[in-house]
């Protein structure tokens, strides 16, 4: 690790306006400390926010839930309200990492975790995300775990979070505090960005901007299913994951939310598929059509070509299961 | 209580309490009088070439740095690979000797600092530029060098009968090519060493399977007198072949300690381990089988193509399974290698049989289907009556019984033979089988034991326990033969000051070190009986039926404590040496352990995810020395088999001669959830030819077949034969309904 | 000087904030039971309890733990008496080389509490949280064992867990 100044923050107000490019916020550390050891992250100042009073889960407006940024992944997944009303989120969290990591990893930190691309982690190899302008090792290298949607010639990395996929499907919003103390809100869907010409930027956060928490609106009706497809049965990142909430009434899709993980530089909200399904009969044929619409622009890079059919098949399987379950629960 | 320590009893590991309480001392944990400095390896980032420029000034000026050792200032060493006439484990492993880069990851500097954080950070400040040379990084079917010999001294080529003719004449033929990827041993303890040097003696605390060669390799590399080198390795956090020879950090720690005359600790970071410790090379295996219409094998052909690391003479006997498992009229087994500029390729658990069986037992399965026969019946119909490769008789042969018993216990008869016959919801279900054999080896070994007048027994050998249970089975052997409680037996291993043993590897450890100990105990018994004979009070005793029980020599109705016999010898203790070496039994007979393994898998028809639901193995490995630890060895091998079949692949980026997934996030070892219910049965049949104990190797037995049983089950579930391991879902997906 | 408590003993932290909790422990004589297998949260060998919850000590800066309670493998038993989980690991041969073992046992210790607290896992179904082989397998998947002792580890934990559920 590059030497840094360590500062424990006692209250949000202590974060000064010059907390910028050269500072990092440290919460659980499960990804940041990992990356600092490799000197992929080299903050000069480490602002330890882990003791801030931002670890509460509170009932929000209109049946929603306010989740503090320091709520651990375990805490969020185990919360009785989350398990009952936002099971998609609980499932997604529990499908990620391990108990040890979830005990430490926080809500804000999970959103901000960086890619697992092999070349990003290997500092001897070119990576535009790590060192803009160096080139991309993965494009013509091993890219089995890489993106099929929204990638650029600069970067084909994926975002590794499971939790964020569920949050995107749930229309969750992040609450942000800028270094100057001003606050704003964003849908989680707009927090992460596509790589374009600046793959070094994972999110739209400004330097020094802190995630204060995530607000979950009241959940939409329907069956929640998070399906994570991975090589190993546990402790592995998703090759493809699908988070879906489907409500079927009279054999027709009443409402549907779909997001993919493991396929893009950000959690991928499948709005085209949702649109294609709205009001349509909840049939396998329509599920397949919706998947094809969403994946029409998908592109493989050799090693990850299989992700296109895998995403299609997984989505269809998830919708099939969800449809069956909602029909069973509303006879 | 005495009985519980008898040979064969499932005695709890004697080192168990230390291991579960964190008190067993592994290499990096030895406490010295002065805390060691900490070294961090700086790796080359090109596959081959020379160092053009090296700037260590920033690193040297970094906080806490004591030295940055490079080829410019490191102590003198013998050139890599010398002397020519020694084996690979004792030849010089010189590094930081000149500006030559041998492979990606090869050390170009060792940064030595006061703390790990300072050393690791400073390592990033070392600036190296290279003059790259063309590198050969990939080997496949283009491998065309014939190695002088294969690991274990086996011939590169074996030919019996006229293969081409028999194959050409066969009614049913199969010609398929399988491949297995580069694989990492991935012992949980990264390779680690603390070295201490006082200008004369070199003390090395490390994690190594073979202690004797570790001393010799350091003597050869560093031009030291082997008598001035002490190597200690009492606890080893897994080796699996990757710690047979001494590894890079050990040489570097010694160089650092000699340079500074201060203790230096070097622990390989997990990313280092992938290039600074050996790995298993990828293989391409072309298998040709010919059979009569009724399913009798007439021709077995196996051609193996693998990489061989430059200047490092290791070639894996991938054809081992093809050479000895089934009877055949004609056999042709050939091994070719291609010299590559990547990091060392060496033994990994069950060299030859492990990846050989993955391919060969899959091909046999294909042939069974092609002949329209049940895979178990097909195997049973082709049992050999002698070793097909050497023509020698088997010391014992129990494969057929393992197959029969396993099939019955597994419920094989419930299986529909056609692929894709079984379904459970959205899961396709399949059942697979594989034969399992592993060569049995005996290696020269010695030991010394001392019985003290307080009744305690100590045995010394430079043997190691890499998790196999050596401390425990040696305790049992001594306790059993001398009639002592286990608590009075102390086994001292892992120190080069002790008598030379076989070390751990090749599944020969228990049989070899155990037989040497047995020999010592038998000699001690003779000595004790001789002392007793001189005793007036025992003149009329029944010496013919002498027994050793409860710490006593029992002679019919008379008995005498061993402590008393020791005292009567006029000494405080009695000491004897024991030994074993392979004799004509190993010349005369072909010796193997056997097993049959069965797997049930499910394959998700939507996603192609394969999960193993159940495994069962029946094994025949001579006399079992401890049923608990033996079962664990077999269990572990089955986990490796599952992992090899479905998960593990070290991905090589040809452009850089480097593995890209150098961590445990992306090099997937099986996790707990991947491992199902596993049933293990022994067919215990002591082999009178194997060694004086009648035991045979087990550490590498189950891995030599477990993966193929899983792969064959995947085929049975899906009707898809994946011939490039591992069987990941992407290879199944396009073939699923 | 900043301190944290390890098994009830006050330990002074290094003044270098880069020092991880794991390296702090491994540099202390008597605390080398906690192992380093990967140093990046990918193996679980360094699992310890931080204020009662299992964590990977390799990914935590020691300075973050100021004033916290850390329990390591050395702190589970009572004097020379092994904790029931440790005994069960010996009896069921839940290890071979022993290197991942302290992490496995600390992990198992916390896992049994998590189950007792009703915290769900990836395999928990509508019937709720129960101690079962499937639950143990999933919940222990953060602890790699290359020797492949997994099935024995499950046996050991199941036995110790059932004993805890119904103390005789």
UniProtKB/TrEMBL annotation, chain A:
GO molecular function list: FAD binding; oxidoreductase activity
PANTHER family: OXIDOREDUCTASE (PTHR42659:SF1), XANTHINE DEHYDROGENASE SUBUNIT C-RELATED (PTHR42659)
PROSITE patterns membership: FAD_PCMH (PS51387)
This protein's UniProt keywords: FAD, Flavoprotein
Pfam families: CO_deh_flav_C (PF03450), FAD_binding_5 (PF00941)
Record-linked InterPro entries: CO_DH_flav_C, CO_DH_flav_C_dom_sf, Diverse_Substr_Oxidored, FAD-bd_PCMH, FAD-bd_PCMH-like_sf, FAD-bd_PCMH_sub1, FAD-bd_PCMH_sub2, Mopterin_DH_FAD-bd
Name of the protein in question: Xanthine dehydrogenase YagS FAD-binding subunit
Keyword Flavoprotein: yes
Species name: Microbulbifer marinus
SUPFAM superfamilies for this protein: CO dehydrogenase flavoprotein C-terminal domain-like, FAD-binding/transporter-associated domain-like
Domain FAD-binding PCMH-type, residue spans: 1-221
Domain of life: Bacteria
Signal peptide limits: none
From TrEMBL, chain B:
Coiled-coil spans in chain: none
Cited InterPro entries: Ald_Oxase/Xan_DH_a/b (IPR000674), Ald_Oxase/Xan_DH_a/b_sf (IPR036856), Ald_Oxase/xanthine_DH-like (IPR016208), AldOxase/xan_DH_MoCoBD1 (IPR008274), AldOxase/xan_DH_MoCoBD2 (IPR046867), AldOxase/xan_DH_Mopterin-bd_sf (IPR037165)
Superkingdom of source: Bacteria
Pfam families with a match to the protein in the record: Ald_Xan_dh_C, MoCoBD_1, MoCoBD_2
Keyword Thylakoid: no
UniProt KW keywords: Molybdenum, Oxidoreductase
UniProt keyword annotation of Oxidoreductase present: yes
Domain Aldehyde oxidase/xanthine dehydrogenase a/b hammerhead: 21-134
Any one GO molecular-function label of the UniProt entry: iron ion binding
Family, as annotated: Belongs to the xanthine dehydrogenase family.
Name recorded for this polypeptide: Xanthine dehydrogenase YagR molybdenum-binding subunit
Automatic annotation (TrEMBL), chain C:
GO molecular function: 2 iron, 2 sulfur cluster binding; metal ion binding; oxidoreductase activity, acting on the aldehyde or oxo group of donors
Stored InterPro entries: 2Fe-2S-bd (IPR002888), 2Fe-2S-bd_dom_sf (IPR036884), 2Fe-2S_ferredoxin-like_sf (IPR036010), 2Fe-2S_ferredoxin-type (IPR001041), 2Fe2S_fd_BS (IPR006058), Aldehyde_Oxdr_Iron-Sulfur (IPR052914), Beta-grasp_dom_sf (IPR012675)
Highest taxon, organism lineage: Bacteria
SUPFAM superfamilies: 2Fe-2S ferredoxin-like, CO dehydrogenase ISP C-domain like
Keyword field contains Iron: yes
Entries under Pfam families matching the protein: Fer2, Fer2_2
Keyword flag Ion transport: no
Keywords per UniProt: 2Fe-2S, Iron, Iron-sulfur, Metal-binding, Oxidoreductase
2Fe-2S ferredoxin-type domain ranges (all copies): 1-76
Name of this chain's protein: Xanthine dehydrogenase YagT iron-sulfur-binding subunit
Organism lineage: Bacteria, Pseudomonadati, Pseudomonadota, Gammaproteobacteria, Cellvibrionales
